[in-house]
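chain below, 326 aa
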Amino acid sequence: MKRIFYLILIFIMVTFYLTPISLADGGLFTQLYRDIYEPNQLAMIVFDDMVEKIIFQIDYEGDAEDFAWVIPVPGYPKLFSVEDDIFYELHKLTQPPPPSSFGCGWGAGVQTPGLEDEGVHVWEENQVGIYHTITLSATDPNSLVMWLNDNGYAFPAEGQEILDYYVQQNWFFVAMKIQHEETMNNSENYSGAIQPIGIMFFSDEMIYPLKISTLSVPSWGTEVLIYAFSDERVTFPGAAEEYNAIVTPDQLKEYPILQGLIDETFVLTKLRKNFSAEEMDEDLILLPVPKYIALGNIIDLNSPVGQFILIVGIFIFVLKTKKKNI
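prediction:
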């Protein structure tokens, strides 16, 4: 009788676990659109020994000459170009079932150590892919707003408070414009996701700079999709987890762009959330998932079946504990 009870329990758990996996395989083109074209902000983060590498891709619609982008980071940044297909590779990698020396080619940049203009320090300039980039720091947010506007970044005056938030924490800023000969000569209009760019810096925490996006968030919100590589499964408040698995370098042989970025074993977590402007008042800190939450990946604790299995599991655990004590 005891053996039959355990067999029934295992059958219920296996059935419950496998059902959503079989449903998740359909609609490749819908999922492709959702992963690559729908999110307003796409990011891949690799966090290892207080070194963070973050690759950004955003939506932009308008003339290439009008494009301007400012990213705050907590440590001095090193920039590197990234091929367009990286997020397509991540999409493929994170589809069920899971798939059975660092070489990003950073440029040294044009060092400008002595350039300072009334509270704004220009550290270096680079050409990274299609972007002309300038690395900045500042001691005064008002001076930084003036510098950005004087140099063609059209930064809104109401953004001074947000810049002050980063200035007070001694963060650096990466200011970017599209500057590519073919693009500029043709006055090309962009619509949709533009070329990704990578930034590496030292950080105590795995962080995604979200707060500055409140200056450009549309009324319907901004969808953010993050692929996080770290030692542990991670999350942030309100995130919907769509994938988590251990990924080794051997598994990336079919993904040449990722293979150039990932040279050791990580846990890959795929997280998505649609943010309203009110929810973007802080940067995202990605933290390890508490161990008890892992059960929710296997059992839907809001369903009657999931609650039944949880109660039965607790009952069995209590019985075994009592037997050991006896």
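The longest strand covers residues 51-63. Residues 4-33, 98-108, 182-187 have pLDDT under 50 and may be disordered.
thats it, cya
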